[in-house]
């Protein structure tokens, strides 16, 4: 077919326009060093770096400040952004600016990274990285200190007497184990300023400690605000409830040697607020088999003026969403925390930038939602009714809070400790001694693996 002069001219102009458009697109496409790297530095490399930190026993699988690695993982990066799987942070956007260490990523940053992936993840010029503004990652630091502890050199380190053997057959196991204090290492009560749990490996899903808070994926060291603290009495009974989770089978056994470190306040420091905690567990319910959105509700009365330091919702694999709501004495209600897409694999402690005042006479309303249907890909068994219990295949509805009375105590570290504070710390330790069902690592008794469940 022969084109007329006008048709040829039109076709030529169209081809030129298409070429110019594609050239402009290629020229304008984001590059790793000029565009993607600053976003990764701001939002991701606190975890995603070479030899990055262990957060609750979980390690980021690749460094994102390395072009070759980022390019290989580019399709997965796009998928994680589109599905909001990354960056991990459960609190709704409405809470932006309220909590420490928040991990919100702006939509324009997500769009930029997706555009970079769609363009083929171009590298660009390494020299362009110097013009990115020198952004640094969120978090306390991006390089583990030489001490091996994010809190710095601990004043006290404790751990298991000997390694804990997790046999081949174990998939899910939650023993409570004591971490004894070496003789002479802690002879007098001390005020805890920071505490850090160091999991032995990625098979440690989470840890619940008697004095160190909770260690779970995504949660770093527990650092109290200045003037806030917990008293560690002399001869403390330090325990950890370990949650081991791995694939069972021949050759999968591991030995764990989890440790913990403490930093204490120094003489002359002032403790105004003695931190208290309450798990606020709710039991007595049954989640029907197949129910896609089972709701559980509970309340907690506030009988004195307090400062609320933080909140830590906890459910298992059927956990779907969780809400803390406060009803003030005058009837006004405020949502303190809304987690619309709870993920058992990423549990956070939401700590206020500034502790929140809650007046006496207020009521905390807590609501949990569970998905026990086939549509929940993490559901262990959608054909089973589910009740409250410690196993991962059970469920929990907990709403842990950390708080303190508002009246300043003015306790000077190094001077005599108020009798009520010392007695309370000792009594709590005594209760733990009496009630703890400890696993002895030296016993090598794993008969429970073959016992029939009751």
Automatic annotation (TrEMBL):
UniProt xrefs under SUPFAM superfamilies: Cytochrome c (SSF46626), PHM/PNGase F (SSF49742)
Keyword field contains DNA repair: no
Entry keywords, A to Z: Disulfide bond, Signal
Signal peptide (residue range): 1-26
GO terms, molecular function: electron transfer activity; heme binding; oxidoreductase activity, acting on paired donors, with incorporation or reduction of molecular oxygen, reduced ascorbate as one donor, and incorporation of one atom of oxygen
InterPro entries (UniProt xref): Cu2_ascorb_mOase-like_C, Cyt_c-like_dom_sf, PHM/PNGase_F_dom_sf
Gene3D superfamilies: 2.60.120.230
Keyword DNA-binding: no
The protein's name in its UniProt record: Cytochrome c domain-containing protein
Organism: OM182 bacterium MED-G28
Organism classification: Bacteria, Pseudomonadati, Pseudomonadota, Gammaproteobacteria, OMG group
């Amino acid at each position: 077919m022969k084109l007329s002069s006008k048709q040829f001219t039109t076709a030529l102009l169209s081809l030129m326009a298409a070429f110019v458009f594609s050239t402009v697109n290629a020229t304008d496409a984001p590059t790793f060093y000029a565009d993607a790297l600053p976003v990764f530095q701001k939002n991701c490399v606190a975890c995603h770096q070479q030899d990055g930190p262990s957060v609750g026993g979980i390690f980021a699988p690749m460094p994102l400040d390395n072009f070759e690695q980022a390019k290989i993982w580019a399709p997965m990066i796009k998928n994680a952004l589109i599905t909001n799987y990354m960056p991990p942070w459960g609190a709704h956007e409405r809470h932006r600016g309220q909590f420490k260490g928040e991990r919100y990523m702006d939509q324009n940053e997500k769009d930029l990274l997706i555009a970079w992936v769609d363009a083929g993840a171009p590298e660009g010029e390494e020299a362009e990285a110097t013009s990115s503004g020198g952004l640094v990652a969120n978090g306390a630091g991006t390089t583990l200190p030489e001490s091996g502890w994010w809190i710095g050199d601990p004043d006290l380190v404790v751990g298991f007497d000997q390694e804990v053997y997790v046999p081949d057959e174990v998939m899910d196991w939650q023993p409570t184990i004591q971490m004894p204090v070496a003789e002479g290492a802690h002879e007098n009560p001390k005020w805890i300023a920071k505490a850090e749990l160091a999991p032995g490996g990625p098979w440690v899903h989470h840890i619940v400690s008697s004095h160190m808070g909770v260690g779970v994926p995504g949660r770093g060291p527990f650092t109290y605000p200045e003037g806030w603290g917990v008293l560690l009495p002399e001869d403390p009974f330090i325990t950890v409830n370990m949650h081991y989770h791995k694939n069972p089978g021949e050759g999968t056994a591991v030995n764990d040697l989890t440790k913990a470190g403490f930093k204490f306040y120094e003489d002359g420091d002032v403790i105004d607020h003695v931190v208290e905690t309450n798990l606020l567990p709710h039991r007595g319910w049954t989640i029907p088999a197949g129910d896609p959105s089972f709701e559980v509700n509970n309340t907690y009365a506030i009988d004195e003026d307090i400062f609320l330091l933080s909140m830590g919702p906890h459910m298992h694999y059927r956990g779907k969403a969780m809400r803390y709501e406060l009803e003030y004495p005058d009837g006004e209600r405020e949502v303190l925390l809304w987690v619309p897409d709870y993920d058992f694999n990423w549990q956070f402690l939401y700590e206020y930038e500034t502790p929140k005042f809650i007046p006496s006479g207020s009521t905390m309303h807590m609501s949990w939602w569970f998905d026990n249907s086939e549509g929940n890909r993490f559901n262990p068994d959608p054909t089973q009714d589910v009740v409250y219990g410690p196993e991962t295949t059970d469920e929990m509805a907990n709403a842990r809070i950390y708080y303190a009375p508002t009246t300043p105590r003015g306790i000077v570290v190094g001077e005599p400790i108020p009798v009520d504070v010392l007695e309370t710390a000792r009594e709590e330790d005594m209760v733990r001694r009496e009630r703890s069902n400890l696993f002895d690592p030296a016993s090598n008794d794993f008969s429970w693996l073959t016992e029939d469940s009751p």
